[in-house]
Amino acid sequence: MAWFILLLAGLLEIVWAYSMKLSEGFSRPGPTAVTIVAMIASFGLLSMAMRTLPLGTAYTVWTGIGALGAFVLGIVLLGEQAGAGRIFAAVLIVTGLVVMKLSTPSA
Predict the structure, then answer these.
(1) In which domain, by residue range, is 30 found?
(2) CA dihedral in degrees (64, 29, 76, 61; nearest 10)?
(3) SS3 assignment, position 27
């Protein structure tokens, strides 16, 4: 269950990162509100997952999900460049997340 909660926390990290971009420096109320709510929920779920998962694993996976998701949304929704170096870096993040999951005792 901790891994599922951590996945939800990571997905909410993607939401708040994207909505923060849309808030244009917190100058737009709607995206700003989404950012704040998603941040609080994401941190709350992360703290729940950390009850069982090791700190290093939980935090690494949480930030990895957020980084990878923000990278993909940037390309798909915001038209950011997807150069070979950036894609290679994303593959390395995914590889790191898989290794972290496989090397952590079940929770």
Answers:
(1) 2-102
(2) 10
(3) coil
